Amino acid sequence: MAAAGAAPQQAAARPASTLTLLTLAIGFVMAMVDLTAVNTALSDIARDLSVPVSGLVWVVDGYTLTFAALLLAGGALGDRMGARSAYIAGLGVFLFGSVLCAVAPGGAALTAARLLQGAGAALFLPNSLSLLTHTFEDDKVRARMVGTWSAMVGASSAVGPLAGGILVHAFGWRSVFWVNVPLGLLGMALAYRLIPAVQPQPRPLSLLSHGLGVLALAGLSFVLIEGPVLGWTSAPLLAGAAATVVFAAVLVRRERAIAHPILPRALLGNGSFAAANATGFLINLAVFGQLFLLSLYIQARGADALHTGYTLLPMMAAFTLGNFSSGRISARVGLRLPLVAGLSAGAAMGALLLALACWMPAMPLALMLAVIVLMNVAVGVAIPAMTATVMQVAGKAYSNSAAAALNANRQIGALVGVALMGTVIHALPLWSARLPVAFGVAALAFAAAAMLVHRHVHLPR
Fold first, then answer.
1. What is the pTM of this model?
2. CA distance 172 to 192
3. Where are the domains of the chain?
4. What's the rounded Cα separation, in Å, for the pair 203 and 408?
């Protein structure tokens, strides 16, 4: 009788588990779609708000700036105030920022609202996975739910440009932000109703260290984005560079001295952990720099937002294909081989794109996209292996801090990559010169990442 009664209970639990999973995925899906979908709206934003290229870089990087700078603080705040409260609060901040983006009268107001969006994402993103871990206590159920959650996040990144293109084509660029309102409200209501509260855990929170990190990253962003506009030797640029160095130096000195640094000292002194995080930085530098530049290139060829989304879809879907293949490959041969091989293949495809762009200045778009798809599949295989490598090197004791650090470094890489491509666009007036440089940067980034893993990442046996 007990066994017979268990089956209906399990069947009844499945819809509740699915709804809980969707509730916790809403925030992350919104964040990832927003991160990629805005690229398809860049030309419309530039035309409607009279935003120059440097302003478009700020629109993309403003979100990434606060997202990256506050990720570690978001996890710590979740521990202090409870993960559910932090998740709902983060959704509220993101929702408010989305409304301000949708009604922005100019480029500066849009950038400020994007900064607010990034702060909200930094608060709800780390607490989403934490709530998933707390909600599903059975190890097998949790593993299945985390896998499904990861697949949903990966799929949202892939469809982001297409979703953005459809929205912009049908309703204008502001709809990319308005669509977050019903989704965010739904996520907040479901989280309050379905997700059990998690007991807050006292944890030291160094606001000064996090503030120094924000200021250093903001200074770096200013230098990289405004350098081509104001001049690399202009007084504001030199002052910004000096301030960035000072803030970064004070942060490093403080972290070495205080009792509770942002990252545990055991991780700071781990060479494999540092190399794996640098690999994440380089991967996102290449991937998001490429996405930004190619979005503008496709639109410069006359494509509207919808056709831009269609064109970018196979490029982004290639990452998802590589992600899904990575687990099976790693299970057979370990983490190191798919990581090094995937990055090396990505570097080779980048070098091939560089050669083709130099040899054929008017390279057919179909040929370019075909090679990029191959490159992205290879890099897509490497990305989950990189994440698993970081977690394995860090160990269970430091898994939360390691995951937050990796996510932050990857977002900083995206910020630098977009800013770097903005510099390329400013410095080189012709696309026939811009594309080879962009592909060369991607090839070098992937090659450097492969070399870092090969020489400095040593997995525990």
1. 0.83
2. 32
3. 16-198, 207-261, 264-461
4. 20
Q: At what angle do helices 139-171 and 305-333 cross, to 10 degrees?
A: 160
pLDDT tens figures, 255-308: 888 877 877 777 777 788 888 889 999 999 999 999 999 999 999 988 888 898
Angle (CA) 217 219 221, round 5° = 70
Half-sphere exposure of 446 (CA within 13 A, CB side): 31
pLDDT of residue 48: 94
Domains 16-198 and 264-461 share a fold: yes
Q: Tokens 């509740």, residue?
A: 16
Is the CATH number 1.20.1250.20 carried by domain 16-198?
Answer: yes
CATH of domain 264-461: 1.20.1250.20
